[in-house]
Each structure stands twice: as structure tokens, then as C-alpha cells.
């Protein structure tokens, strides 16, 4: 697999600075928080792959079954002899492989471009993809939009962007719209987007999925404290925090928090600042919003995408929605 690392030293410094600023802002607020995007360093990416394979986590196996069937139809809907398949976030490759094979089996040449800030995640992905003369794999180590803009410069092929899992749910409604608008700007007329949406369902199923019996989700969240220690010179003791995940029906989202187990003051050296935590004070890490079909349709329409088809499972737990870019129907 060819690999292009766009996180050159200057960009990496900018990324580290953004991390520091977000931590400073989030931990200085009355209601403390750290953005969920910082879960995914190399260790976090590896832990998430383990979570995604856990029996308690319904999302991955459900989406796999959806894509297994969708892969028979999507290649015929895009009408391409050669296509760039771009995956935002390097998963383990099992779901993207289904789609890649679907195109290859239809006689289409595929250029696969996974984009991720974790080079290790990219390497793990490459190990799971088979060699084929009609398949070229080119990993891009970058943030999503740096990677997309790079690809727009080097290729004029039709594009199918994959934003799988429930990643869109990590944005609130305003952020979802902003993300989709930026994505629309990064693509050309008639390009396609396959995007995963976790649907609203009963709370027990959700709570079980986000509190797995082997503690992988706990380790995933706690790893953020280790990252603060290693990258920003923090002095967090993970034993003095606990993971707490629950479904909040008021905002229709799963929430993840770290709870301080005692009153404590924690210094972060690079910020030259001490942060005070009261006993049982939460730090918000993530809200994973759940959707209805009507909400998915509205998101597409308001951001100048046309819904081509919704692909769902027999339980109605999840939707992978195929959208097409509509530049001629742009909404102001």
C-alpha cells in the first residue's frame, strides 16, 4: 500500500496546538469537556477496532450485514468504469472490502484512498485488503478535508466517499450540517457519499453497546487521559476517574463522560495551568446522536445532496444512506 503523510511537521505542530487549545478551553469551562476527535491516536484506534468486534456492540455487525447486500447494488448505481473510493477514518477494512469487491466484480477499476490521522490504523487496514490488479491502495495520513482536497487535485475520477459506522452521530445538529457542507464543497457534481446513521431505538440496547462487558469502552475513554499525560504533560491518574456512558433521551444521544472520583487539582505542564475537579464532577467526552429516517432525509436536502437509496437491516437499527452530490441544486 502506498502511503502519503500530509501531517508534515508544521501541520503536526498545528494539530498539537489545536489539541492543547481545545483541552484548555474544554477544561476551563464550567461544564468540562474534551472533543471526541481526540480519542483516536494509535492506541485509541486499536482499541476502537476491538470495541467494534465485541458482541455487545451491535453497530458493526449490523452495518456489515447492510453493506454486504448494498455492495451488490451500489456499483450499478454509480455507473463508473473507474472510481475513487475514499474512506474517512481507517477502519479494519472489512466493510470497505465488501464495497471494493462489489465494484471489482462489476469490472470497475478501484482506487482506494483511506484517510486517517493515525498511520498505525492505516497500516492495520492495509493488512486486511487483498491484492488485485484492478485495485490500487493509497493511504492518506491527514485530517479528512486536507486529504480530500489533496485527492481533488490529483484525480478527476468519480468518487464514492465512505463515512461509515455512526461517526456522523458524534456531531451535534449544527456540526453535522457544517461537516456535510464542507464535504459537499470537497466533491464534484454526481460524486456519491455512503454515510452511516444509527437509528433511534430502545435505551437498553444502546446502553449495553456503549458499556461493553469487557471494559473496552472504558479503556478507550481512559486512554484520552494517557494521551493528555504523554502529549501535553498532564498529571492525570486514571485510577481517580471512572467511565460513565448512558443514553440521554432528552437530546436523543448516547453520552460518554469521565467522572472525577475525588476533589483534585491536576497540572498540565504544556499549558502551565492547574485544573480543579470537584468530587464526582463529569468531563463530557462524546455525544452520539441517533436519528430517524426523516431527519436523515432533511440533512441530505439541506446540504445539497440527493438521497439515492437507504440501505437498512431487518431490525431497523441502522441505515447506510447513499447520497449523490447535487451542485446544480445548491441551497444557500
Uncertain runs are none
In order across it, which strands form the biggest sheet? 1-4-3-2-5-6-13-12
Strand content: 25-35%
Total DSSP E strands: 13
Q: What's the tally of helices?
A: 11
Shape: globular
Which structural category fits the helices and strands?
alpha/beta
pLDDT averaged over residues: 92
- Summarize the biggest pleated sheet: 8 strands, mixed
Distance between the termini: 40 Å
Describe this structure in words.
The chain is an alpha/beta fold and 332 residues long. The protein has a domain at 31-54 and 203-289. It has 11 helices and 13 strands. The chain has helices at 9-28, 42-52, 58-70, 74-78, 94-105, 119-127, 144-154, 173-186, 203-209, 216-232, 293-302; strands at residues 2-5, 82-88, 109-116, 135-141, 158-163, 192-198, 241-248, 253-260, 264-268, 273-277, 282-289, 305-312, 318-325. The chain has an 8-stranded mixed sheet, with helices on both faces. It has a 3-stranded antiparallel sheet with strand order 7-8-11. The protein has a two-stranded antiparallel ribbon with strand order 9-10. Helix 2 (42-52) packs antiparallel against helix 10 (216-232) and helix 3 (58-70) packs parallel to helix 5 (94-105).
